[in-house]
Design goal:
Layout: H1 2-14, H2 18-23, H3 28-42, H4 48-77
Helix pairs in contact: 1-4, 3-4
Length: 78
């Protein structure tokens, strides 16, 4: 699985400037949706589909954090 993440991270960095990658933030609507899912997860009120949605977001968030870290390294090497 790590190899797949590495390829995706490399793709993200190669298709935008390192600064663009670092500055990327999900839309306000997306952030609100995630916070709603997190709150409802704590209360045990998520459907299986919503649990899947939240898990997918968490994986994507992890990938973006790794891409941002790699972009910061790239900026430091220029």
């Amino acid at each position: 699985m790590a190899l797949v993440y590495e390829e995706l991270i490399d793709f993200i960095i190669s298709h935008g400037s390192p600064r663009d990658v670092i500055e990327f933030k999900p839309s306000e609507a997306a952030r609100e949706r995630v916070w709603d899912l997190i709150r409802r997860e704590k209360d045990g009120r998520l459907t299986p589909e919503e649990t899947s949605e939240l898990n997918t977001f968490m994986q994507l968030e992890h990938i973006m954090r790794l891409a941002k870290a790699r972009a910061r390294l790239k900026l430091g090497n220029e």
